[in-house]
Amino acid sequence: MHFLTPAHILLISVGLSVSQKNDPDAERCRGQGLVCHESAVCVRDQVYPAGLEQSYYCRCLPDWDGDGINNCVAPPIFLKVAHPSRCNETGAQSCFMTKLPGQEVQFQVKSPGAPNVTVQWFKYFVGEPPNFNSYRKLLKPPEKEEPEDRPIPEGGTLTIPHIEEDDFYQNLYWAEILTDGDSTVGTRAVVAFDLAEEERLNPSPSRVYFGLETKPIETKGPTFSLSHLNERDFGVYRAEMFGRKDGVPGMELVATRRFNVTRDVSKTCDGPRSEGHCKCNSGFLGNGEHCADIDECSAEIAECLPEASCRNTEGSYRCECPTGYRGDGRTSCEDVDECADEDDVTRCHADAECVNTLGSFLCECKPGYMGNGRDCLAISTWTPWSPWSQCTETCGHPPNTRVRVCTHPESGMRCEGASLEQGVCRGLPPCPVDGGWTVWSPWAPCTASCGGTRQRARTCDAPAPAHGGRYCPGDMYESQPCEPSPGCAVDGGWTQWGAWSACSVTCSVGRRVRTRSCSNPRPRYAGRYCTGPNTEQERCGEHNPECYGKESLNAVDAVWGEWSEWSECSHTCGLGTRFRRRLCRRHLGPTCSGENTEQQPCMVEACPAEVEKFGQHMGRQHRWREQTQARRHP
C-alpha cells in the first residue's frame, strides 16, 4: 500500500482531442505558399529565428518517409487499437476508457499484416511541475514473488487486474513496436522521459496510448466553491495530487479526480434568484424558487418508440434504442450491422464468418471448421487424391496406387475411409501368355495282358498360349511299360554297353573290354535270358607314342620289342584263336625281319551243343566197346 503525501493540488480544465491529425501551424505554411501533404504537418524550422520568412516547412508525420509536400509513405509496420468500440473516447493512436479504482481493464493492440511483431509496454508517470521530471517505466511480466495484481504484459495485450489511483490520466500506458536490435530503455527499467507536445499532437504510428478516466463528480454552481462564476467557468475540472511512488524518483501523479461544474438549468431568473423573479423552465415543476425535475418516463409522457427505453434526464428525457440498434429512440431504431464494424468482426475467430442478426450478430465457423465462432478448430478432412502412380509394366493390367492425407491432426479427429486406393493401369496392350500343361490324365489300359505299354496325355490349355506366348515345352503323351503279373513271363534285356576298360599293355598290342548286363529288364517268371555275350573286346596299344624311347630313336638297326600278353580267346566257348603282337623299334636302319603277330588256337570252355555231341559220341563208343568185348568174351 502506498502512503500518499499531499504536496500540491492543481485544478485545470481538460479536454480530449479526437482529431486524427493536429496541425496548429498549417496557416503559416499556407501563408508561405506551401501546401503540405495530407500526412504531413507544418512545423517551425529551428534554424531560422522566429518571425523570419521560410521559418516553417512541411514535415511528414512521425515515422512516415517523404518530403512532406509531394509524398509521405506510411511505415510498413504500425500499431492500432484492437477494439476501438471498448474505448469511450479515441484520438490519433489513443484510446481512453472510463473506469473505477479496483476494476480490471485490458488494453489490446494489433499490427495489421505483421501478427508476430514484438511489442513492449510502458507506463508514463507525470512529474509535478515545474521541479520534477516525468518518467517512463518498462513493464515486464511479474516474477513469482511479486504481487499478482500488477500490470501483466503479454504480447499485444496488457492486463491490469486491479486499477490503482495512479493509473488514471494524466499518467498513461502505451504499447510500442520494438524493432530488431532496438533498445529503447537501455539497462534500466525506469528512465526520465518527456512526452513532447509534438508527440501528443501527432503520435507515432509505432505507438498506441491508453488512458483511464473516472466519471466526473457532478457539481452545480453556485454551490461549488468558486465564486463569481462566468459562463466560461462551467465545465470539467481535474484535481491532481502528487506524491512519491515506490521505484520512481521525484514527486509523481498519484491520484486524480474530475469535477463537472454545471449551471442550474431548472429555472430562469430576472434579477435575484427568488420566487418573485424566477420561473421554472420546461421539464421542471415548482414555484420559481424551487423547481423539481419532471420524470417524463414515470409519468408516461415521454414519446419513445415501443422498442426503445426511456431514461430521465435533468429537465428532459432520452429515448435509447435497445442494444444492437441505433437511432434517437423517438423516430427510429435501426439494426446495427455489427459485421460491418471492424471491431466487432474481430470478435469472431479468423476462421469464422460474422452473420448479422436483429439487434446482434453471430459468429459461425466457416465450412471445414467447428466451434462456437469465437474459437474455431479445423476439422480433419481428406486432401484430394494424389495422381495415380506410374505403371512399371508395359502390357496387361498392372496395379497402380494413389494416396491422400488426413489434414489437421491437431483436431484429434480421424478421417473416415482409406488413405490408399489401388487401381489398375489401363490402355496397355495385352501381355503374352505362355501355355501351361494341364495335369496328366489317368493311365490308359495296357496294350497287352502280359506286359505291353500304357499311355497318358495332357493338353496345353492351362492356360492356352495367347498374344504371342510360347507353347508348352515337353511332350503331350507319356508311355511306360506295364508291370507284368506273376503269370506273365518276362524275358531279360541287355543294358547299354559300358565304357571301355584301360588297355592291358602300354607298349605293344593289348586288349580292352566293355560289358553289359541282362537287367533291362531282368528275366522274371521263367522268362528267357538275354542272347549274346555280355563282354566285348578289341585291340589297343600298338600305336602308343610313349613306347618309342630315346634309345630306340638313336638305334641304327631295327630291333623287335617285347611280345605283348596273349589276347583273350576270340570265342567264349568252343575252339577259338588268340594272338599277341610286338613292335619294330628302328631309327635309320632297315625294318625288323620276321612277323609282328603270332597266334594260336584256344578254348575257354566247351560249348553246350558240342558237349552234348561229344557225350553222344562217347556214348556210342562206349556201347561199341562193350559190344566188342562181349563178342570177344562170350
Automatic annotation (TrEMBL):
<keyword id="KW-0732">Signal</keyword>
<dbReference type="GO" id="GO:0048513">
    <property type="term" value="P:animal organ development"/>
</dbReference>
<keyword id="KW-0812">Transmembrane</keyword>
<dbReference type="GO" id="GO:0048731">
    <property type="term" value="P:system development"/>
</dbReference>
<keyword id="KW-0106">Calcium</keyword>
<keyword id="KW-0964">Secreted</keyword>
<dbReference type="InterPro" id="IPR052065">
    <property type="entry name" value="Compl_asym_regulator"/>
</dbReference>
<dbReference type="InterPro" id="IPR049883">
    <property type="entry name" value="NOTCH1_EGF-like"/>
</dbReference>
<dbReference type="InterPro" id="IPR001881">
    <property type="entry name" value="EGF-like_Ca-bd_dom"/>
</dbReference>
<keyword id="KW-0472">Membrane</keyword>
<dbReference type="InterPro" id="IPR036383">
    <property type="entry name" value="TSP1_rpt_sf"/>
</dbReference>
<dbReference type="InterPro" id="IPR018097">
    <property type="entry name" value="EGF_Ca-bd_CS"/>
</dbReference>
<keyword id="KW-0677">Repeat</keyword>
<keyword id="KW-1133">Transmembrane helix</keyword>
<feature type="domain" description="EGF-like">
    <location>
        <begin position="293"/>
        <end position="334"/>
    </location>
</feature>
<dbReference type="Pfam" id="PF00090">
    <property type="entry name" value="TSP_1"/>
</dbReference>
<keyword id="KW-0325">Glycoprotein</keyword>
<dbReference type="InterPro" id="IPR000152">
    <property type="entry name" value="EGF-type_Asp/Asn_hydroxyl_site"/>
</dbReference>
<dbReference type="Pfam" id="PF07645">
    <property type="entry name" value="EGF_CA"/>
</dbReference>
<dbReference type="InterPro" id="IPR024731">
    <property type="entry name" value="NELL2-like_EGF"/>
</dbReference>
<dbReference type="InterPro" id="IPR009030">
    <property type="entry name" value="Growth_fac_rcpt_cys_sf"/>
</dbReference>
<dbReference type="Pfam" id="PF12947">
    <property type="entry name" value="EGF_3"/>
</dbReference>
<feature type="domain" description="EGF-like">
    <location>
        <begin position="335"/>
        <end position="377"/>
    </location>
</feature>
<feature type="signal peptide">
    <location>
        <begin position="1"/>
        <end position="19"/>
    </location>
</feature>
<dbReference type="InterPro" id="IPR000884">
    <property type="entry name" value="TSP1_rpt"/>
</dbReference>
<protein>
    <submittedName>
        <fullName>Hemicentin-1-like</fullName>
    </submittedName>
</protein>
<dbReference type="GO" id="GO:0016020">
    <property type="term" value="C:membrane"/>
</dbReference>
<dbReference type="GO" id="GO:0005509">
    <property type="term" value="F:calcium ion binding"/>
</dbReference>
<keyword id="KW-1015">Disulfide bond</keyword>
<keyword id="KW-0245">EGF-like domain</keyword>
<dbReference type="InterPro" id="IPR000742">
    <property type="entry name" value="EGF"/>
</dbReference>
